[in-house]
């Protein structure tokens, strides 16, 4: 049985994951698949997608305010300067996901983002991520037709790893590209399809 867009009580068609009301519906309707501005916003999305790996997005979304506080508003320079005391503080913070590998990855990725900016060969993290947006994306009618990876997310993963980023596998990078609106996987018929 396939699952296409769901029409809610408000008469609006949405992707099934965003049709149940509450926080997830709000995120679906106002944020997911929308472009962002600024290095911190891109770094936040990269970080949260890595922390989401193996967990539900609802868990990460509920903890997002705590993540923002714990990681200095995702200020890249501040996070890149985190030391062992910061690592200990983060591992003791019940407001976030306390996973040593993901905490370490965030600090590593902040340093890699600073290096990317300083190299000047691309327009920082934002420019690098945007450069991997496909010319033509998928047009899924059902949840089953939404890809988990793409040639672009695989290429992005390889390039980020080459530049010193970690926890940036092709599935996580595809989710990041979806969240940033670099690839539109809202289902055909969803009211957010084509809106960036």
TrEMBL record:
<dbReference type="InterPro" id="IPR052891">
    <property type="entry name" value="DNA-3mA_glycosylase"/>
</dbReference>
<dbReference type="InterPro" id="IPR005019">
    <property type="entry name" value="Adenine_glyco"/>
</dbReference>
<dbReference type="InterPro" id="IPR011257">
    <property type="entry name" value="DNA_glycosylase"/>
</dbReference>
<dbReference type="GO" id="GO:0008725">
    <property type="term" value="F:DNA-3-methyladenine glycosylase activity"/>
</dbReference>
<protein>
    <submittedName>
        <fullName>DNA-3-methyladenine glycosylase 1</fullName>
        <ecNumber>3.2.2.20</ecNumber>
    </submittedName>
</protein>
<keyword id="KW-0326">Glycosidase</keyword>
<keyword id="KW-0378">Hydrolase</keyword>
<dbReference type="Pfam" id="PF03352">
    <property type="entry name" value="Adenine_glyco"/>
</dbReference>
């Amino acid at each position: 049985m396939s699952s296409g867009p769901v029409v809610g009580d408000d008469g609006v068609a949405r992707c099934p994951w965003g049709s149940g009301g509450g926080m997830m519906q709000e995120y679906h309707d106002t944020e997911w698949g929308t472009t962002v501005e600024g290095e911190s916003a891109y770094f936040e999305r990269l970080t949260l997608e890595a922390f989401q790996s193996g967990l539900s997005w609802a868990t990460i979304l509920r903890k997002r305010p705590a993540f923002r506080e714990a990681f200095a508003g995702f200020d890249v320079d501040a996070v890149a300067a985190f030391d062992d005391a910061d690592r200990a503080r983060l591992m003791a913070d019940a407001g976030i996901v306390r996973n040593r590998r993901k905490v370490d990855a965030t600090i590593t990725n902040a340093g890699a983002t600073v290096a990317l900016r300083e190299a000047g060969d691309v327009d920082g993290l934002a420019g690098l991520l945007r450069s991997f947006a496909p010319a033509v994306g998928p047009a899924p009618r059902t949840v089953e037709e939404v890809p988990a990876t793409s040639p672009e997310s695989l290429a992005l993963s390889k390039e980020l790893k080459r530049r010193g980023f970690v926890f940036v596998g092709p599935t996580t990078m595809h989710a990041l590209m979806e969240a940033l609106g670099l690839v539109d996987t809202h289902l055909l018929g969803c009211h957010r399809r084509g809106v960036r």
